[in-house]
Amino acid sequence: MIAMWVALAGCGSRADFATFTETGFGPRVTGGTMSADDCLVVYEGPVLVTHSRITCADDDMTLWFQTEGWTSGGQVFVQDTSGGSPQWAEEHALESVGHDVCGAWDELEVDIHAGVRTDQYIPDVTSAFACSDPGAGRLTYAVAVQDIEGDLADCVVFGHDPQALLAGGDRALDPTFDTSRCVVAELTR
Description:
Elements: E1 2-10, E2 48-57, E3 60-68, E4 74-80, E5 89-99, E6 105-114, E7 126-127, E8 139-146, E9 152-159, H1 162-167, E10 183-188
Parallel strand pairs: 6-7, 9-10
Antiparallel strand pairs: 1-2, 1-10, 2-3, 3-6, 4-5, 4-8, 5-6, 8-9
């Protein structure tokens, strides 16, 4: 199994981009409760993408992201920014797979079959990127999440060449979301 896990740290003018480190990603509850009615503190801060984990086993790839605050889902846009024209790119929808009952965090992911031919790419189902690609240092990711009202809450870009992804150019497809509100994030381990 190949796994890549990172925390995202903001750069530029984004002072509120949270970074934290933890060892386990099992169910956590804020305030020591399993019921929203018993929350000691209900999170009311901004929705921010804070963690990313990409795992792959037997050509099944999972793209997982964690946020501060609840979301109504999101998208991950992946582009091979290492060269060539047009650059291969694809987008997949992210769905919530876990959340804190008090609103402190949400976990989003998509499970896809990796390593298909580009003509076999199906959003949210298959990927032309192979399991070896995430660790090869040539992919760039843009992750956009929506708040519970469905409005764009946060967008981060990280990986090989964030500026190339943000600039657009000659690529197989463009993101369905507005990348002008995205911030470049640094990877921390």
